[in-house]
From TrEMBL:
Specifically catalyzes the decarboxylation of meso-diaminopimelate (meso-DAP) to L-lysine. HAMAP family: LysA. It is an enzyme of class 4 (lyase). Homodimer. Gene3D superfamilies: Alanine racemase, Lyase, Ornithine Decarboxylase, Chain A, domain 1. Belongs to the Orn/Lys/Arg decarboxylase class-II family. LysA subfamily. SUPFAM superfamilies: Alanine racemase C-terminal domain-like, PLP-binding barrel. Transmembrane segments: none annotated. The modification N6-(pyridoxal phosphate)lysine is found at residue 59. The gene is lysA. Keywords: Amino-acid biosynthesis, Decarboxylase, Lyase, Lysine biosynthesis, Pyridoxal phosphate. This is Diaminopimelate decarboxylase.
Length: 434
């Protein structure tokens, strides 16, 4: 987070608060959210895309307090399940500012979205178009929809490759004409209002050219629809996926640079195709909340383990076990993601040692940070902070090994407040019947 510093005694502070005090008050592990950082990122996106709508992708992290923060900052919200929709509505998010995603929305979820009056539903299959048509007739409403287009740009973590054919579950493929067919089908159903096209090429993307290729391809479909039906769709959503820095090696584009490049492509293509420039939207999740949070852990054990490479313990690595792990951050185990860690309750002049920060779960893949240099005198009772854990950590947290999920503490201008409380063992037991 941005408002992090070292205070007297070398302890990490965030928004003017000493992490030792936060640990004493809220326990560890805890996710600490720098609220001004999150709000600052919302503002940067709004400033970068002044005439576009910014839909915060709630899957990155959602709770009522965050819904209110992003709403206050003028953002819209992308939800992709009934649960996310319920959270948004219960926090008072205006339904017209909600977009509803998902490749398998149930009839119950669609009904709820339609009845709530969500601003747009991003349709993902012909089955869904049929379901929504039936629902709209029955309810005598005219939902606004976007068509999710699979543009054939396959995004990998640090690169993209354009694929001739795609093989994944989302959207309507451009190849073979499914996307055009979906748009025509909706245009033929007078109970659905086709507002535009949508594409999302992946997540944690650093190479902006993937977004450019994608924008070009959806706009080509846009003009194909205009030529065939004489309708110019008024909106275009270019999705999310903007990468963030997890380690010092990562160098993501700023929202401003991204916006400039996307604008140029969209304006250029529209001019070339003689299309009216559609109203743009984007859906950043990670780039809004990811960098605004760190996880605060307490060290429980430190063990020196030979790596086997050099044959003796001097070539080993320290295993620093913390009081959480893959239940509060599955990304290292699941995606081989890179994080960093820092000693948080003090500074140390001890030599740096190669360390692996691991959790308390019963499997060896329970790694939070694969490789990090920590001071050689790290000991039980020390606090360790892992930055960049705002996105897809709490939202993907589990109760593996019956570990209660950590709280989320929002800090701002020297004050802390709990926005998600820690789970208790009673919470864990509450679902057991009998
Ligand atoms: N829009 C759509 C339609 C999406 O599917 C997603 C993410 C986003 C926006 C937001 O993407 P972001 O800006 O946050 O990259 N669990 C994975 C990430 C899955 C992303 C799924 N869709 C991870 O931890 O990296």
């Amino acid at each position: 987070p941005r408002n992090v510093a070292r205070g007297p005694g070398g302890a990490l502070t965030v928004a003017g608060l000493d992490v030792r005090d936060l640990a004493a008050e809220y326990g560890t592990p805890a996710y600490v959210l720098d609220e001004d950082d999150l709000r600052g990122r919302c503002r940067e996106f709004r400033a970068a895309f002044p005439d576009a709508d910014i839909y915060y992708a709630g899957k990155a992290f959602l709770c009522r307090a965050v819904v209110r923060m992003i709403a206050e900052e003028g953002l819209f919200l992308d939800v992709c399940t009934g649960g996310e929709l319920a959270t948004a509505l219960s926090a008072g998010m205006p339904p017209a500012r909600i977009g509803f995603h998902g490749n398998n929305k149930s009839v119950a979820e669609l009904t709820r979205a339609v009845d709530a009056g969500v601003g747009r539903i991003i349709v993902d299959s012909f089955t869904e178009i049929d379901r929504l048509t039936e629902l709209a007739r029955e309810r005598r409403v005219r939902p606004k929809v976007l068509v999710r287009v699979t543009v054939g740009v396959e995004a990998h973590t640090h690169e993209f490759i354009a694929t001739a054919h795609e093989d994944q579950k989302f959207g309507f493929s451009l190849a073979g004409g499914a996307a055009a067919a979906a748009a025509f089908k909706i245009l033929d159903e007078d109970v659905l209002e086709l507002r535009g096209l949508h594409s999302h090429i992946g997540s944690q993307i650093f190479d902006a050219s993937g977004f450019e290729v994608s924008a070009r391809r959806v706009l080509a479909l846009q003009s194909q629809i205009r030529d065939a039906r004489g309708v110019e769709l008024p909106e275009l959503d270019l999705g999310g996926g903007f990468g963030i820095a997890y380690t010092t090696q990562d160098d993501p584009a700023t929202p401003h640079d991204l916006a400039k490049r996307l604008r140029k492509i969209v304006d250029g293509e529209c001019a070339a195709e003689n299309l009216a420039v559609p109203h743009l939207s984007v859906e950043p999740g990670r780039a809004i909340v990811g960098p605004a949070v760190f996880t605060l852990y307490e060290v429980g054990t430190v063990k020196s383990v030979p790596t086997g490479t050099g044959g003796d313990a001097a070539d080993g690595r320290a295993y620093v076990s913390v009081d959480g792990g893959m239940s509060d951050n599955i990304r290292t185990a699941l995606y081989d993601a890179s994080y960093s860690a820092t000693l948080a309750n003090r500074t140390s002049t001890a030599q740096p040692m190669l360390a692996r920060v691991v959790g308390k779960h019963c499997e060896s893949g329970d790694i939070v940070v694969k490789d990090e240099f920590l001071p050689a005198d790290v000991q039980p009772g020390d606090l360790v902070a892992v930055p960049g854990t705002g996105a897809y950590c709490r939202s993907m947290a589990s109760n593996y090994n019956h570990v209660p999920r950590p709280p989320v503490v929002a800090v701002r201008e020297g004050r802390a407040r709990l926005i998600v409380r820690r789970e208790t063992e009673d919470d864990l037991l509450a679902l057991d019947v009998g």
